[in-house]
Amino acid sequence: xxxxxxxxxxxxxxxxxxxxxxxxxxxxxxxxxxxxxxxxxxxxxxxxxxxxxxxxxxxxxxxxxxxxxxxxxxxxxxxxxxxxxxxxxxxxxxxxxxxxxxxxxxxxxxxxxxxxxxxxxxxxxxxxxxxxxxxxxxxxxxxxxxxxxxxxxxxxxxxxxxxxxxxxxxxxxxxxxxxxxxxxxxxxxxxxxxxxxxxxxx
Length: 202
Prior knowledge:
Keywords: DNA-binding, Transcription, Transcription regulation
Radius of gyration: 19 Å
InterPro entries: Homeodomain-like_sf (IPR009057), HTH-type_TetR-like_transc_reg (IPR050109), HTH_TetR (IPR001647), KstR2_TetR_C (IPR041490), Tet_transcr_reg_TetR-rel_C_sf (IPR036271)
CATH superfamily of one domain: Tetracycline Repressor, domain 2
Number of strands: 0
Organism: Geodermatophilus sabuli
GO molecular function, one term: transcription cis-regulatory region binding
Helix content: 55-70%
Protein name: Transcriptional regulator, TetR family
Order of helices and strands: HHHHHHHHHH
């Protein structure tokens, strides 16, 4: 997935695309922390001058915004897929959970950066607001599934949503793409363990 459709508008110097710049920037942000990372360090890591970076973006803040939007846009795209918009709410909820695992495995560094945001700047606060909107979508799905009789009535929808995505988000702490587990493997395991306690007893 490209960075929220923004990587096609500006052409970089040969060998240095905005996508590759974002990949390196996010790796360094995760390694050192956003605030501790300078444009000089990014230029050094890329083996280019700072002016080459500014050919693509106006500032380090713009790099952060693009990186966070890449993760968030991918997550929100899941909620617009047919599996998330039609059918019983419990199935739509499972689709969103599975899709979120798929996004996490595909965009691991970007999702990791998103989960470390604390609202220390307008860009970070905007990202947190979008995360809250995503959380509300999940909460609404849990509530709808409860209303349809597929989720235990003693489970608070907001708490259930946080627990579900706490499990999804925890994957950033230990999942490695070269570890032999596919996105489907992870999603199967997570759904099997979390939905068993969530579903209403028949």
